[in-house]
Protein backbone atom coordinates (compact mmCIF):
# COMPACT_ATOMS: atom_id res chain seq x y z
CA UNK A 1 0.00 0.00 0.00
CA UNK A 2 1.46 3.35 -1.02
CA UNK A 3 2.24 6.42 1.03
CA UNK A 4 0.60 9.54 -0.42
CA UNK A 5 2.48 12.81 -0.92
CA UNK A 6 0.06 15.69 -1.15
CA UNK A 7 0.47 19.41 -1.87
CA UNK A 8 -2.04 22.13 -2.70
CA UNK A 9 -0.31 23.76 -5.68
CA UNK A 10 1.88 22.54 -8.54
CA UNK A 11 4.63 24.94 -7.44
CA UNK A 12 4.81 23.16 -4.08
CA UNK A 13 5.42 19.76 -5.70
CA UNK A 14 7.37 20.77 -8.80
CA UNK A 15 9.99 18.14 -9.75
CA UNK A 16 8.79 15.51 -7.28
CA UNK A 17 7.06 13.41 -9.94
CA UNK A 18 10.34 13.28 -11.95
CA UNK A 19 11.94 11.43 -9.04
CA UNK A 20 9.44 8.57 -9.35
CA UNK A 21 10.40 5.32 -11.05
CA UNK A 22 7.75 3.76 -13.30
CA UNK A 23 5.63 6.91 -12.96
CA UNK A 24 2.07 6.47 -14.16
CA UNK A 25 -0.72 9.00 -14.12
CA UNK A 26 -4.42 8.45 -13.54
CA UNK A 27 -7.17 11.04 -13.86
CA UNK A 28 -9.78 10.79 -11.14
CA UNK A 29 -12.20 13.24 -9.52
CA UNK A 30 -10.86 16.07 -11.67
CA UNK A 31 -7.30 15.55 -10.48
CA UNK A 32 -4.15 13.80 -11.66
CA UNK A 33 -2.67 11.13 -9.40
CA UNK A 34 0.90 9.93 -10.03
CA UNK A 35 1.89 6.49 -8.82
CA UNK A 36 5.41 5.04 -8.82
CA UNK A 37 8.35 4.09 -6.62
CA UNK A 38 10.73 6.30 -4.71
CA UNK A 39 13.71 4.37 -3.31
CA UNK A 40 11.70 1.14 -3.59
CA UNK A 41 8.78 2.62 -1.64
CA UNK A 42 5.38 2.79 -3.34
CA UNK A 43 4.25 6.41 -3.45
CA UNK A 44 1.39 8.35 -4.91
CA UNK A 45 1.66 12.09 -5.56
CA UNK A 46 -1.32 14.40 -5.96
CA UNK A 47 -2.33 18.05 -5.86
CA UNK A 48 -5.37 18.90 -3.79
CA UNK A 49 -5.99 22.41 -4.99
CA UNK A 50 -6.71 25.14 -2.45
CA UNK A 51 -9.09 24.94 0.50
CA UNK A 52 -10.53 22.43 2.95
CA UNK A 53 -13.13 20.83 0.66
CA UNK A 54 -10.64 20.31 -2.19
CA UNK A 55 -8.19 18.82 0.30
CA UNK A 56 -10.81 16.49 1.82
CA UNK A 57 -11.95 15.27 -1.63
CA UNK A 58 -8.35 14.49 -2.57
CA UNK A 59 -7.62 12.72 0.71
CA UNK A 60 -10.70 10.50 0.30
CA UNK A 61 -9.73 9.67 -3.30
CA UNK A 62 -6.19 8.78 -2.17
CA UNK A 63 -7.59 6.39 0.42
CA UNK A 64 -10.63 4.88 -1.34
CA UNK A 65 -9.38 4.69 -4.90
CA UNK A 66 -5.60 4.39 -4.52
CA UNK A 67 -5.33 2.56 -1.18
CA UNK A 68 -3.04 5.12 0.48
CA UNK A 69 -1.80 3.83 3.85
CA UNK A 70 -0.58 7.22 5.09
CA UNK A 71 -0.68 10.82 3.90
CA UNK A 72 2.17 13.34 4.10
CA UNK A 73 1.48 16.95 3.13
CA UNK A 74 4.27 19.28 2.02
CA UNK A 75 3.58 22.90 1.21
CA UNK A 76 3.67 26.48 2.44
CA UNK A 77 1.91 28.42 5.20
CA UNK A 78 1.70 31.89 6.68
CA UNK A 79 3.69 32.35 9.90
CA UNK A 80 1.55 33.28 12.92
CA UNK A 81 3.88 32.62 15.85
CA UNK A 82 6.11 35.54 16.96
CA UNK A 83 9.24 33.48 16.32
CA UNK A 84 8.03 31.94 13.05
CA UNK A 85 9.48 33.87 10.10
CA UNK A 86 9.53 33.59 6.32
CA UNK A 87 11.88 30.77 5.34
CA UNK A 88 11.35 28.82 8.58
CA UNK A 89 9.73 25.38 8.50
CA UNK A 90 6.90 24.09 10.69
CA UNK A 91 6.09 20.42 11.25
CA UNK A 92 2.52 19.96 12.50
CA UNK A 93 1.81 18.13 15.74
CA UNK A 94 -1.85 19.10 15.76
CA UNK A 95 -4.43 20.83 13.59
CA UNK A 96 -7.45 23.06 14.21
CA UNK A 97 -10.00 24.48 11.74
CA UNK A 98 -9.83 28.14 12.74
CA UNK A 99 -13.06 28.98 10.86
CA UNK A 100 -15.19 26.24 12.49
CA UNK A 101 -17.90 27.95 14.55
CA UNK A 102 -21.18 26.16 15.29
CA UNK A 103 -21.75 28.21 18.46
CA UNK A 104 -23.95 28.45 20.43
CA UNK A 105 -24.82 24.83 19.57
CA UNK A 106 -21.21 23.71 20.12
CA UNK A 107 -18.18 25.53 21.54
CA UNK A 108 -16.42 27.67 18.90
CA UNK A 109 -13.72 25.66 17.05
CA UNK A 110 -15.16 22.29 18.11
CA UNK A 111 -15.95 20.04 15.14
CA UNK A 112 -19.56 18.90 15.71
CA UNK A 113 -19.83 15.15 16.17
CA UNK A 114 -16.18 14.79 17.26
CA UNK A 115 -16.34 16.54 20.63
CA UNK A 116 -13.05 18.32 20.00
CA UNK A 117 -11.31 21.01 18.01
CA UNK A 118 -7.83 19.48 17.91
CA UNK A 119 -6.81 16.70 15.53
CA UNK A 120 -3.45 15.05 16.24
CA UNK A 121 -0.92 14.14 13.59
CA UNK A 122 0.64 10.68 13.76
CA UNK A 123 3.57 10.80 16.22
CA UNK A 124 5.82 8.27 14.45
CA UNK A 125 5.34 9.69 10.95
CA UNK A 126 5.64 13.29 12.21
CA UNK A 127 8.88 12.42 14.01
CA UNK A 128 10.36 10.91 10.84
CA UNK A 129 9.24 14.02 8.93
CA UNK A 130 10.75 16.32 11.57
CA UNK A 131 14.11 14.53 11.36
CA UNK A 132 14.05 14.74 7.59
CA UNK A 133 13.18 18.47 7.73
CA UNK A 134 15.96 19.14 10.26
CA UNK A 135 18.55 17.39 8.08
CA UNK A 136 17.35 19.27 4.99
CA UNK A 137 17.41 22.65 6.76
CA UNK A 138 20.92 21.96 8.06
CA UNK A 139 22.28 20.85 4.71
CA UNK A 140 20.54 23.20 2.26
CA UNK A 141 18.14 25.53 4.07
CA UNK A 142 20.70 28.27 4.71
CA UNK A 143 21.71 28.44 1.07
CA UNK A 144 18.10 28.57 -0.14
CA UNK A 145 17.18 31.27 2.37
CA UNK A 146 20.19 33.36 1.35
CA UNK A 147 18.98 33.38 -2.25
CA UNK A 148 15.91 35.30 -1.06
CA UNK A 149 17.87 37.47 1.36
CA UNK A 150 16.40 35.64 4.37
CA UNK A 151 18.10 34.73 7.65
CA UNK A 152 19.05 31.18 8.64
CA UNK A 153 15.90 29.03 8.76
CA UNK A 154 14.63 27.52 12.00
CA UNK A 155 12.46 24.46 12.44
CA UNK A 156 9.35 24.55 14.67
CA UNK A 157 6.88 21.84 15.66
CA UNK A 158 3.38 22.42 17.02
CA UNK A 159 -0.09 23.63 16.13
CA UNK A 160 -1.03 24.63 12.58
CA UNK A 161 -4.49 26.06 11.88
CA UNK A 162 -6.46 25.84 8.63
CA UNK A 163 -9.39 27.78 7.20
CA UNK A 164 -10.91 28.79 3.89
CA UNK A 165 -9.25 32.17 3.89
CA UNK A 166 -5.88 33.53 2.74
CA UNK A 167 -4.87 35.64 5.74
CA UNK A 168 -3.27 38.77 4.35
CA UNK A 169 -3.46 41.59 6.86
CA UNK A 170 -1.53 42.37 10.03
CA UNK A 171 -4.72 43.20 11.90
CA UNK A 172 -6.49 40.07 10.67
CA UNK A 173 -3.51 37.90 11.62
CA UNK A 174 -3.39 39.48 15.11
CA UNK A 175 -7.14 38.92 15.55
CA UNK A 176 -6.84 35.30 14.45
CA UNK A 177 -4.01 34.71 16.87
CA UNK A 178 -5.88 36.40 19.69
CA UNK A 179 -9.06 34.39 19.08
CA UNK A 180 -7.06 31.16 19.21
CA UNK A 181 -5.15 32.26 22.30
CA UNK A 182 -8.52 32.81 24.02
CA UNK A 183 -9.07 29.08 23.49
CA UNK A 184 -5.59 28.38 24.97
CA UNK A 185 -4.17 27.58 21.55
CA UNK A 186 -0.82 28.88 20.31
CA UNK A 187 -0.79 28.59 16.51
CA UNK A 188 2.54 28.57 14.70
CA UNK A 189 1.19 28.86 11.17
CA UNK A 190 -1.98 29.20 9.08
CA UNK A 191 -2.89 27.52 5.82
CA UNK A 192 -5.99 26.27 4.00
CA UNK A 193 -5.94 22.45 3.83
CA UNK A 194 -4.19 20.54 6.61
CA UNK A 195 -6.97 20.36 9.23
CA UNK A 196 -9.38 18.92 6.66
CA UNK A 197 -6.92 16.14 5.78
CA UNK A 198 -6.28 15.51 9.48
CA UNK A 199 -10.05 15.03 9.99
CA UNK A 200 -10.35 12.64 7.00
CA UNK A 201 -7.35 10.64 8.24
CA UNK A 202 -8.92 10.47 11.72
CA UNK A 203 -12.14 9.15 10.14
CA UNK A 204 -10.24 6.40 8.30
CA UNK A 205 -7.70 5.70 11.07
CA UNK A 206 -4.79 6.62 8.80
CA UNK A 207 -1.49 8.25 9.84
CA UNK A 208 -1.10 11.88 8.73
CA UNK A 209 1.91 14.21 8.92
CA UNK A 210 2.53 17.67 7.46
CA UNK A 211 5.39 20.11 6.95
CA UNK A 212 4.94 23.70 5.83
CA UNK A 213 7.68 26.11 4.86
CA UNK A 214 6.74 29.68 5.76
CA UNK A 215 6.06 31.77 2.66
CA UNK A 216 4.71 34.90 4.38
CA UNK A 217 3.72 36.34 7.75
CA UNK A 218 -0.04 36.45 6.93
CA UNK A 219 0.36 40.26 7.10
CA UNK A 220 -0.04 43.22 4.75
CA UNK A 221 2.84 41.93 2.58
CA UNK A 222 1.58 38.32 2.38
CA UNK A 223 0.26 38.64 -1.18
CA UNK A 224 3.73 39.74 -2.35
CA UNK A 225 5.85 37.36 -0.25
CA UNK A 226 3.69 34.28 -0.98
CA UNK A 227 4.25 33.95 -4.78
CA UNK A 228 7.97 34.81 -4.50
CA UNK A 229 8.57 32.06 -1.96
CA UNK A 230 6.25 29.48 -3.54
CA UNK A 231 7.91 29.80 -6.93
CA UNK A 232 11.48 29.65 -5.67
CA UNK A 233 11.77 27.49 -2.54
CA UNK A 234 8.63 25.47 -1.71
CA UNK A 235 9.18 22.48 -3.99
CA UNK A 236 12.86 22.14 -3.05
CA UNK A 237 11.73 21.28 0.47
CA UNK A 238 9.19 18.78 -0.87
CA UNK A 239 11.81 17.00 -2.97
CA UNK A 240 14.55 16.93 -0.33
CA UNK A 241 12.29 15.98 2.57
CA UNK A 242 10.37 13.24 0.77
CA UNK A 243 13.55 11.70 -0.67
CA UNK A 244 14.91 11.46 2.85
CA UNK A 245 11.71 10.24 4.56
N1 LIG B 1 -0.70 29.67 2.84
C1 LIG B 1 0.43 30.39 2.75
N2 LIG B 1 0.27 31.60 3.29
C2 LIG B 1 -1.00 31.66 3.74
C3 LIG B 1 -1.76 32.66 4.38
N3 LIG B 1 -1.23 33.85 4.66
N4 LIG B 1 -3.04 32.38 4.71
C4 LIG B 1 -3.58 31.17 4.41
N5 LIG B 1 -2.91 30.21 3.79
C5 LIG B 1 -1.62 30.44 3.47
Give your account of this protein's structure.
The protein is α/β, with parallel strands linked by helices and 245 residues long. It is globular, with a radius of gyration of 17 Å. The protein is 36% helix and 29% strand. The mean pLDDT is 95. The two termini are 16 Å apart. α2 (52-64) packs parallel to α5 (194-204) and α3 (123-147) packs across α6 (222-244). It has a domain at 74-244: Rossmann fold, CATH 3.40.50. Bound molecules: adenine. Adenine binds at residues 76-78, 166-168, 190-192, 215-216, 218, 222, 226.
Quick overview:
With 245 residues, the chain is an alpha/beta fold. It is 36% helix and 29% strand.
So what's the overall shape?
globular
Strand content: 25-35%
* CATH C-level label of the domain at 74-244: Alpha Beta
> Could you tell me the mean pLDDT?
95
Oligomer: single chain
Low-confidence stretches: none
The CATH architecture of the domain at 74-244 is 3-Layer(aba) Sandwich
Task: State the share of residues found in helices, binned by percent.
Answer: 25-40%
What's the CATH topology name of the domain at 74-244? Rossmann fold
**Strand count:** 10
Structural class: alpha/beta
Biggest sheet features: 5 strands, mixed, barrel
Strand order of the largest sheet: 5-9-8-6-10
* Head-to-tail CA distance between termini: 16 Å
Each distinct ligand? adenine
CATH superfamily of the domain at 74-244: Nucleoside phosphorylase domain
Helix run count: 6
Amino acid sequence: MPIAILSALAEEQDGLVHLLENAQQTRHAGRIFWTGQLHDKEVICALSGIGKVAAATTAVALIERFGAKAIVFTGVAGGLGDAVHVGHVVVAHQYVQHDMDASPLFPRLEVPGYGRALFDCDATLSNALLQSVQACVQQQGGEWAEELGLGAPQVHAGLIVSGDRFVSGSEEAAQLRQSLEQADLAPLAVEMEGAAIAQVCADYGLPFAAMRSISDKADDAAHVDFPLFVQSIASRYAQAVIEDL
